[in-house]
Write a structure and sequence with these properties.
The chain is rod-shaped. The chain has one domain. The protein is mostly helical. A two-stranded antiparallel sheet has the order 1-2.
Length: 114
């Protein structure tokens, strides 16, 4: 039963890491777009009002993806707690530098090396 739970946990972890990576890539690509829009306007010598709606909606998309990232980070923390609750030991095969605690909560997170 323990081996089955570990296999399931590894499967869930792989999907979690893939989701985290996809969100970070989306943030990076939207940031690139946000940087390109005003530069394109300047290069084309267009009025500042041209493309303003696109800049606003792209910036809004960035905020939404950042909020989504916050939720997936919270999901990671919650899955770690669930893993602890069922007695599965921590297995590190992700990032080397970890931060304990939820970011943005106002408390100082504790750094640890996995």
């Amino acid at each position: 039963m323990r081996a089955q739970r570990q296999a399931i946990a590894h499967s869930v972890a792989a999907r979690l890491f893939a989701a985290e990576e996809a969100i970070d890539l989306a943030l990076a690509r939207i940031a690139e777009l946000n940087a390109a829009l005003p530069l394109a306007r300047l290069d084309a010598r267009l009025a500042a009002s041209i493309g303003q709606d696109a800049i606003l909606t792209s910036a809004s998309a960035m905020v939404l993806v950042a909020e989504t990232r916050d939720k997936i980070v919270a999901t990671h923390v919650n899955l770690k707690k669930a893993s602890d609750d069922i007695g599965l030991a921590e297995v590190s095969y992700g990032d080397l530098l970890k931060v304990d605690g939820k970011l943005g909560s106002g408390s100082q997170p504790c750094l640890r090396v996995a």
